[in-house]
Write a structure and sequence with these properties.
globular; 3-stranded parallel beta sheet; 2 domains; pyruvate-formate lyase- activating enzyme; 20 helices; about 35% helix; about 550 residues; alpha/beta; 10-stranded mixed beta sheet; binds iron/sulfur cluster
Length: about 550
């Protein structure tokens, strides 16, 4: 366990996290610390506490205002298990990727990141400090804020707010909410009285009304797993309509307040800071920090609306882009980094070329900006083209790669951008994510039909013919999504072969908490209530994967 110590006076806020703290804007804990300090609060960092003992959580004492538990950009169960429910023995966010406390046996009891970290940490803090305010946030808390499916346990679990006994759950992007919570606590407001946009709490009663969407209860879902899909559909609709959302859990309710839109100044506050891009102990690197050392986040949000992706219920489908000046300031700061060798590993967001495609519409009822067709209000990726041109011409920058995902169905309409990416920003491979080829499965995934991939490959091949240095397509493929049959896999292999596309990067669908696809998997039906086939048998999934790769 490593802590950052402060003597005599308590920290205002203590951030607790199950991996190495990174002072880097690609990591939520790095941003959170900077924005809270900018507000004048002192922030202690308690990283990798030995969670088996409550005393480990007392290493920095009791904070004056609150604990904030941050578990990073990925749910602990997804990091601790493969999609086939096998335990992982490595953790990219730890020193050397080592997942276990040193000096202890490599067993689950000594994993640095415990399963369902948020609730383990929150309960230990309660044991150590009783009624101290506890705030939870990040992907794990966000996606488990209502009753959800946990694929490792194959069980419906109640809201993480109840199991963790945390006071407030910050939904999605959290800097603004955390600042407001800290200000209110600092003014002396009781944690019980803090109700803010973009947060969720457990309460004893709600007042029904037209501004509140009550989704099927935890008990309804326990009785009938199909209700999880009803709940998910209602939740996503309420998010689009900006409504308050409530879900009954026995005699309590989980209530989520509608979020406020983040704006440019929120992003400027988060990113225009002096980050050291190091852990607390300089000179060591977790694989995750090493990979992201020279990456730049250009925007948040994704308009894709894919059913299996967490981004919709976490960051939302609205694109929020940083200003070009802010990105350039960050790029210039990279040039001064002691390890800078000239390459930027990424400039992007959830989908790289969505930078600058911000939509001005205040309300929107669509699930996706791109599916079933591209919305006429969705912007063109010209801003991204321009940004890349400016950035790669900066003296000292030798190469800019694009590590973020690219939507090929967007790129096919902008061959100029595609060509520049192939010439200047791709390595040997250009990574795209068609995921599947069968329209029935693609439809359930919320992805474009196969013909979009065919058109893209045609354009890609015609550009490639003109290039001196050839680029290969490396597609991410997914098997085992609800709705897929064995015949689909046979057809998929034949179609990809016909397009001369590799089938080496195949992942098995993971029913992660809080997505539409997971609700389909759980209820074995689609959102139109039609039954869909679901494969849960590991041997069958392995057979499909081997067949596709072979
Ligand atoms: S395009 Fe990528 S980031 Fe966007 S919703 Fe789909 S899977 Fe998620
Ligand atoms: S109006 Fe169109 S572009 Fe804007 S958010 Fe809705 S679907 Fe996306």
């Amino acid at each position: 366990m490593t802590v950052k110590c402060k003597i005599n006076t308590p920290f205002d806020i203590i951030i607790v996290l199950p991996y190495l703290f990174s002072d880097h804007p690609s990591f939520p804990e790095g941003i959170l610390k900077k924005v809270l300090e900018k507000e004048g609060f002192s922030v202690g960092i308690l990283e990798t506490p030995f969670w088996q003992k409550k005393e480990s959580f007392a290493a920095l004492g009791r904070p004056r205002l609150c604990f904030a538990i941050v578990t990073g950009p990925v749910d602990s169960i997804l990091l601790n298990y493969t999609s086939l429910r096998k335990r992982r023995n490595e953790d990219l966010y730890q020193e050397g990727g080592r997942a276990f406390f040193s000096g202890y046996p490599p067993s689950i009891g000594y994993k640095i990141r415990p399963d369902r970290t948020t609730l383990v940490f929150a309960n230990r803090i309660r044991e150590a400090f009783g009624d101290v305010p506890i705030i939870i946030g990040g992907m794990e808390a966000s996606m488990r804020r209502f009753a959800h499916y946990d694929f490792q346990q194959d069980a419906i679990r109640r809201s993480i707010l109840l199991d963790s006994r945390a006071d407030i759950l910050v939904v999605g992007m959290g800097e603004r909410q955390m600042i407001k919570i800290a200000r209110r606590l600092n003014e002396g407001t009781s944690i019980k009285d803090i109700v803010l946009p973009g947060t969720a709490r457990a309460v004893n009663a709600i007042t029904s009304g037209i501004d509140i969407e009550e989704i099927p209860s935890h008990e309804d879902i326990l009785q009938n797993r199909k209700k999880l899909l009803d709940a998910q559909v209602a939740l996503e609709r309420a998010l689009r309509h900006g409504k308050k959302i409530a879900q009954r859990h026995a005699n309590r309710f989980i209530v989520e307040e509608p979020a406020e839109k983040y704006n440019d100044s929120d992003l400027a506050l988060a990113y225009d800071q002096d980050y050291s891009r190091s852990h607390l102990r300089p000179g060591i690197y977790s694989p995750a920090l090493r990979m992201n050392l020279f990456s730049i986040t250009s925007h948040r949000g994704c308009g894709g609306g894919c059913s299996f992706c967490s981004i919709y219920c976490h960051q939302g489908k609205g694109i929020l882009s940083r200003s070009g000046d802010s990105i350039l300031r960050e790029l210039h700061a990279l040039l001064r980094h002691p390890e800078w060798k000239g390459s930027v590993s990424d400039i992007g967001g959830p989908t790289a070329e969505m930078y600058g495609t911000n939509c001005a519409k205040e309300t929107c009822r669509r699930q996706s900006c791109l599916f079933p067709d591209r919305c006429s209000n969705f912007g063109n990726p010209e801003a991204y083209l321009e940004l890349l041109r400016v950035c790669r011409n900066i003296k000292g920058v030798k190469k800019i790669f694009i590590g973020s995902g690219l939507r090929y169905d967007l790129l096919l309409h902008f061959p100029e951008l595609l060509e520049e990416i192939m010439v200047h920003h791709a390595g040997k491979y250009l990574r795209i994510a068609p995921e599947h080829t069968e329209d029935s499965v693609l439809g359930l995934m919320g992805k474009p039909p196969f013909e979009a991939l065919e058109s893209f490959v045609q354009i890609f091949n015609s550009i490639n013919k003109r290039l001196k240095r050839k680029v290969e397509l490396a597609p991410y493929l997914m098997i085992g999504h609800p709705g897929e049959s064995r015949e689909d896999i046979v057809s998929m292999k034949a179609k990809l072969r016909a397009l001369n596309i590799k089938t080496t990067d195949v992942q098995v669908f993971t029913p992660s908490p809080g997505t539409l696809s997971t609700a389909m998997y759980c209820g074995e039906c689609s959102s139109s209530s039609s039954p869909v086939p679901v494969v849960k048998d590991v041997k069958e999934l392995m057979r499909r994967k081997r067949f596709l790769i072979g």
